[in-house]
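Re: the pair you flagged

First of the two:
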Amino acid sequence: MELTEAIYGRRATRAFTTEPVSKLLLEKLINAAIQAPSAVNGQPWYFTVIENQPLLDKISSESKKYMLKAMENKEFPEHLHEHLESPDFHTFYHAPALVVISSKAGNWAVEDATLAAQNLMLAAYGEGLGSCWIGFAQHWLGTPEGKRTIGLSGDYMPVAPIIVGHPDGTPQPVARNPARIQWIV
């Protein structure tokens, strides 16, 4: 697959089959992720792969509660409240795998992990898999309880929780706004 095809074709996938993703394929995606650039070549990332469905259910439930509490005094679109309040909504969309990309705390920790995440998601698409960054889980995973739950040491902060699986259908493209460009010559 050409890189441009992957960039223009990759979509956030929120519907998956029950087919598991092989360990070999998940390792291949992680190996693509670590090809990302990092500030001063620090390569600070750490990957936690969760395939345990009861654990994913627990993280989904705790993340929903955490987000609802965080949203109490802030403006959020109403449909987000509806999702989070629904007992049927699963933050991971029942994907068979969650890859949490964490980074050692530092000046560019978020940027480094985000670059690795983009590589992972493009590689997943290239392998015929779907992926989606799950922001709803991100903040709870950064709590002491969340970090304990996924066995993450205090030196690391979770940045990018990405679900991966075999897509059940093809997500439709989302219209893009034209680029806002300022040319200074």
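Second of the two:
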Amino acid sequence: MNDSHAPKDQDLTSTIHLSALRSVPKPRPLEEIFGQLTLAEREVVSQLPSNSAMLIVIAGPSKGARYLINNSETTIGRDPQNEIFLDDVTVSRKHAQITRAPSGEFLVEDLGSLNGSYLNAHQVQKSNLAIGDEIQIGKYRLTYFKGRGN
């Protein structure tokens, strides 16, 4: 019997990227962001030198953790050898990097992580940072502050 007229199996699967379905919050005013900091955190941020920055976990896992960024490159990941060590399976061993551009501005760059890096709820490969930006790496949400000098 010849089955040449029978329908061939068709692959009807597709990929849905759940990150595209994420809720994107409205930008928060800086006053609201600074209002979430403790008095001690506000004092530390106000004393940051102009060539440095800081990531502060305002809410969620590791709330209150502060990470000073004062090198030209700062790696973030699950490997303890990273400058910023985030110990969770949602974080790749070498997940992301913060770099200081010659202009003095800081950038975040994903290093090919499995779960991606997010800036203000948008997945990014590489992007400039502004005061109050929220970087999400795995389950960690870190808020960016840049030093203005004393």
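The first helix runs from residue 30 to 35.

-B.
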